[in-house]
Design brief:
Helix content is 46%, strand content 17%. With 366 residues, it is an alpha/beta fold. The chain folds into 2 domains: 134 residues, Response regulator (Rossmann fold, 3-Layer(aba) Sandwich), CATH 3.40.50.2300; 184 residues, Response regulator (Rossmann fold). The longest helix has 27 residues. The chain is globular. It starts with a helix and ends in a 13-residue tail after the last helix. Bound molecules: beta-D-glucopyranose. Beta-D-glucopyranose binds next to loops.
Length: 366
C-alpha cells in the first residue's frame, strides 16, 4: 500500500516536471518567422537559403528555414511544425501551387500571415502577400534572346517548359510565347518538338488551358534528368531538316545544362542557342565556356530582403507596401515584384562578379 502511494506521488512529480520542461522548451523554441522552401536538390533554393541566413544576421526576430524536398506532404508537416512553434509570419515557396493551399489555410486559421515566395500559391484566399520576380519578363527575355540570335529562315525551335504544378512555368512560357509566336508566324522559326504548339502557332495570346496543353507535352518538371530524356527522345525523332542550326527554349539553368549536353552530343546539330534562368554557378561556367548561351539573373538578395522586410513590417504591427497584384485563381494577392537581368558571355563578369554576387575564384576562364 505504502509502496503504491510512493509510486503514485513519484509519478506525479515526474509528470509535473515534464510539463514544466515542455513549457520551457516551447518558450525556448518560439519562432517568429517560418520559411519553407521547395527542395535542397536544386542550387537555386540552396542559394535562397543562404541569402535568408545572411539576411537574418542581426535581426531582432527569430526565423527557421525548412525544406519540403519535393513533397507537398512534407511541406504541410513543415508548416504545421512551424505553426506549433508560434510563428506569426510564414514565408513559403510552394512545391505545388494548388496543393499548398491546405498548408496556408491551416496557417490562416492559426492567425499567421502568409507571404507566397517566388511561386504563387493558387486557388485559395489564405495568401496575404506575394514577393516575386517579374516572371513574364523572364520568359520574354528568353524568347527575345532566341529571336535576336536567330539564323536565317525556318530555324528549328525546340520548346521546353517547367513543372505544370508551378504557376511560374505558365508565366515563363507565356512571356516567351508572346515574343516567339510572331517569329514563328513569319517563318523565322519552325517548331520542332511539340504538336500542341504547332496546333496553336497561329495564336498570339494563349489561354491557361492552351498553355497547359503545350506545357503538358514539353514539361521538364524542373528535373534535369527528365529534360535530358525528353531532349534525347526529340532528337532521335527529329528529321534532318529539324537539325543544323537550332534554337532551344530551356526554362531554367538546371534543365538548360542537361538539354545543352544532349544537343552538343548530336553531330547533326551544327550550332544551338539555348536559354536558361537563375544564374546558377554551374551555368555561369557554361556561359563562360560557350556551352549555354544565356541565363536570366534573378537577384535572390532582393527577393529575400523584400520578403523579410515584409515579415518585419507585419511583426511590428504595420501593413507592408506592395506594387501590384497577382490573381491566384481565387483572389488578387498584393505583390511586390523585382526586375531581372539578362546575362550572356558579353556581360557575365560585370553582372555577376564585379557586382559582388559571386567571387571570380568561383569560375575558370573568366
Ligand atoms: C523558379 C525558378 C526555378 C524553378 C525550378 C521556379 O518557380 O522561379 O527560379 O528555376 O522554379 O525550381
Amino acid at each position: 500500500m505504502k509502496k503504491s502511494v510512493k509510486a503514485i506521488s513519484l509519478m506525479l512529480v515526474v509528470m509535473i516536471f515534464a510539463v514544466i520542461v515542455s513549457a520551457c522548451g516551447d518558450k525556448g523554441s518560439k519562432v517568429n518567422v517560418g520559411i519553407v522552401l521547395p527542395t535542397k536538390d536544386e542550387p537555386r533554393w540552396v542559394q535562397d537559403e543562404q541569402r535568408f541566413k545572411d539576411a537574418l544576421n542581426g535581426t531582432k526576430y527569430s526565423a527557421e528555414i525548412l525544406f519540403s524536398q519535393g513533397s507537398s506532404a512534407k511541406e504541410k508537416e513543415n508548416v504545421d511544425a512551424l505553426i506549433a512553434k508560434g510563428i506569426k509570419v510564414l514565408i513559403i515557396c510552394p512545391q505545388d501551387g494548388d496543393a499548398a493551399a491546405a498548408s496556408v489555410e491551416a496557417a490562416k486559421k492559426a492567425g499567421v500571415q502568409v507571404i507566397s515566395y517566388d511561386r504563387l500559391i493558387t486557388n485559395t484566399d489564405a495568401v496575404n502577400y506575394y514577393v516575386t520576380f517579374d516572371s513574364v519578363a523572364v520568359g520574354k527575355a528568353q524568347g527575345q534572346y532566341l529571336v535576336d540570335h536567330a539564323k536565317g529562315k525556318g530555324e528549328p525551335l525546340y520548346l521546353y517548359a517547367g513543372a505544370a504544378s508551378d504557376n511560374n512555368a505558365f508565366l515563363f512560357f507565356q512571356g516567351a510565347w508572346e515574343v516567339l509566336q510572331p517569329k514563328i508566324a513569319d517563318g523565322t522559326f519552325k517548331i520542332a518538338n511539340s504538336s500542341e504548339a504547332v496546333n496553336l502557332q497561329g495564336k498570339a495570346q494563349l489561354s491557361r488551358e492552351e498553355l497547359s496543353k503545350i506545357i503538358g507535352q514539353v514539361t521538364t518538371n524542373w528535373d534535369a534528368g527528365e529534360a535530358k530524356n525528353k531532349a534525347q527522345t526529340h532528337l532521335t525523332a527529329a528529321a534532318a531538316d529539324a537539325k543544323g542550326d537550332v534554337a532551344i527554349l530551356a526554362p531554367n539553368d538546371g534543365t538548360a545544362r542537361s538539354i545543352a549536353d544532349v544537343f552538343a552530343s548530336d553531330s547533326a546539330i551544327k550550332s544551338f542557342v539555348v536559354t536558361g534562368q537563375d544564374a546558377e554557378k554551374a551555368s555561369i561556367q557554361y556561359v563562360i565556356d560557350g556551352k549555354q548561351s544565356m541565363t536570366v539573373f534573378k537577384d535572390v538578395r532582393t527577393l529575400v530582403k523584400d520578403a523579410m522586410g515584409m515579415a518585419v513590417v507585419i511583426l511590428d504591427g504595420n501593413t507592408p507596401q506592395t506594387t501590384g497584384s497577382y490573381n491566384n485563381g481565387k483572389v488578387d494577392v498584393k505583390a511586390k515584384q523585382t526586375n531581372v537581368i539578362v546575362v550572356d558571355k558579353a556581360n557575365v563578369k560585370a553582372a555577376l562578379v564585379d557586382s559582388g554576387y559571386y567571387q571570380a575564384s568561383d569560375f575558370k576562364g573568366l
